[in-house]
Amino acid sequence: xxxxxxxxxxxxxxxxxxxxxxxxxxxxxxxxxxxxxxxxxxxxxxxxxxxxxxxxxxxxxxxxxxxxxxxxxxxxxxxxxxxxxxxxxxxxxxxxxxxxxxxxxxxxxxxxxxxxxxxxxxxxxxxxxxxxxxxxxxxxxxxxxxxxxxxxxx
Length: 154
Hints:
The protein is mainly alpha-helical and 154 residues long. It contains 5 helices and 3 strands. The chain has one domain (6-31, 42-152): Protein Binding, DinI Protein, Chain A (2-Layer Sandwich). Helix 3 (58-80) packs antiparallel against helix 4 (85-125).
């Protein structure tokens, strides 16, 4: 019931990260007052999923998350035999909440580092807005490589 494949954990992590990035872009746009596309506005784009995976701590966080999922599965299997359906559902929900909290603990610092690197590169290039590559159909200056170098130090 709680089994998530490593790939699913990555996808969930990336989705959460993208929501945070979109929220950040929303804040930037809302603080600008009027939202009007002007020729002088420079827009950057990044492959946020790639940048998250390049973060040095990402592998350790993925492994820790997978270990937490495995432990939750073992705990559920051990305890659920003695529970009725309602108690199983409640226990399942409790484990899901614990896993969600664990995921936030593990991946929020990584996301924050990626966002800080994006901001640093964007500021140095004079970019007013940076969007995820998946949200842009056309245009924008791709700064993924520069941000990746800042993240990895290479």
